[in-house]
């Protein structure tokens, strides 16, 4: 196995120069840097990241704690977080945040104890004080807790766009299937906006709430079945994510409803499958790239001691397709 001394000898430079190239020093000219990188490639030399971390006093790694990689929204966001972090020269260590607080605390502590320099985490109800006490710079996605830094989509805007669109398409009785309405969760704003828009327009509305367990497992058969069993004359559905909306679509078609003639459906997230199903799904587009960029840059600023706003939002967009 090659060592830093072997690289220095191959490139005809000092070991200090090799070290500066590895650590991205601006004091190295382009020709010298190329010689060192060519030597590293030739000798298949890989720097000891643990030793580098100890020398610098921090690890160039961010932790990303999400509910479950099987959830399309979080899988796509994780991909964008990793891309953005790499563009800044950082790595990402991904872990899942289980459904109960004790397991969440254990997962968070494993990350913070793994030499990550900062953590991006999904919002889990009841964790605000825990995160506030953490010494690891942390950014929460989807929280409105005043005591921690967070980034989120503009969920109120999304709720308004979805509801006004359904009303503009002639819907008179609309059902909204939300996620779990936990305190301090930014996505609650979608539901509040939905109710407000319906009330202001004199539109009948009804709410159903999906449990966090069902969301993580993508198990919506029960709640979708209840919607169609308990309601005979509704003409619009606003679902809290595209998987749920897709199940509403397939259920409606299997029961003989025409979409969009009889029932109009709007989803949320704009995951890739929403454009692939038939009819393609009208949905609210969350800007994954901007969310990821904002989360990564915010946690890097916190790591470097730069002041950043406590709450930051990314606009959403209505994507009109065949279900409305």
Automatic annotation (TrEMBL):
Q: What is the lineage of its organism?
A: Bacteria, Pseudomonadati, Spirochaetota, Spirochaetia, Spirochaetales
Stated name of the protein: Transcriptional regulator, LacI family
The record lists the membrane-crossing segments as none
* Residue intervals of the HTH lacI-type domain: 2-56
A Gene Ontology molecular-function term? transcription cis-regulatory region binding
PANTHER family associated with the record: LACI-RELATED TRANSCRIPTIONAL REPRESSOR (PTHR30146), RIBOSE OPERON REPRESSOR (PTHR30146:SF95)
Database matches in SMART domains: HTH_LACI (SM00354)
Listed A to Z, the keywords are: DNA-binding, Repressor, Transcription, Transcription regulation
Q: What is the species listed in this Swiss-Prot or TrEMBL entry? A: Sphaerochaeta globosa (strain ATCC BAA-1886 / DSM 22777 / Buddy) (Spirochaeta sp. (strain Buddy))
Q: Which CDD domains match?
A: HTH_LacI, PBP1_Qymf-like
Q: Pinpoint the HTH cro/C1-type domain residues.
A: 3-50
């Amino acid at each position: 196995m090659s060592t830093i001394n072997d690289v220095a000898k191959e490139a005809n430079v000092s070991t200090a120069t090799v070290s500066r190239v590895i650590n991205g020093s601006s004091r190295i000219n382009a020709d010298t840097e190329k010689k060192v990188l060519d030597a590293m490639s030739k000798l298949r030399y890989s720097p000891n990241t643990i030793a580098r971390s100890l020398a610098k006093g921090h690890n160039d790694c961010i932790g990303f704690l999400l509910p479950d990689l099987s959830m399309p929204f979080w899988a796509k966001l994780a991909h964008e977080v990793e891309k953005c972090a790499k563009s800044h020269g950082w790595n990402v260590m991904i872990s899942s945040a289980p459904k109960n607080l004790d397991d969440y605390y254990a997962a968070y502590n494993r990350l913070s104890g793994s030499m990550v320099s900062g953590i991006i985490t999904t919002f889990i109800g009841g964790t605000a004080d825990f995160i506030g006490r953490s010494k690891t710079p942390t950014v929460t996605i989807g929280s409105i807790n005043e005591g921690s830094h967070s980034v989120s989509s503009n969920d109120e805007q999304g709720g308004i766009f979805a509801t006004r669109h359904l009303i503009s398409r002639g819907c008179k009785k609309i059902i909204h299937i939300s996620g779990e309405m936990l305190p301090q969760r930014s996505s609650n704003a979608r539901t509040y906006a939905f109710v407000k828009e319906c009330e202001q327009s004199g539109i009948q509305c009804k709410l159903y709430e999906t449990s966090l367990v069902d969301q993580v497992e993508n198990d919506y058969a029960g709640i979708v079945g209840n919607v169609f069993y308990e309601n005979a004359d509704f003409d619009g559905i606003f679902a809290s994510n595209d998987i749920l909306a897709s199940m509403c679509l397939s259920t409606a078609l299997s029961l003989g409803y025409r979409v969009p003639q009889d029932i109009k459906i709007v989803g949320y997230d704009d995951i890739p499958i929403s454009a692939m199903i038939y009819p393609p799904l009208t949905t609210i587009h969350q800007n994954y790239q901007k969310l990821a960029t904002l989360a990564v840059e915010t946690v890097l600023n916190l790591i470097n001691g730069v002041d950043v706003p406590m709450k930051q939002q990314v606009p959403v967009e209505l994507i009109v397709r065949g279900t409305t």
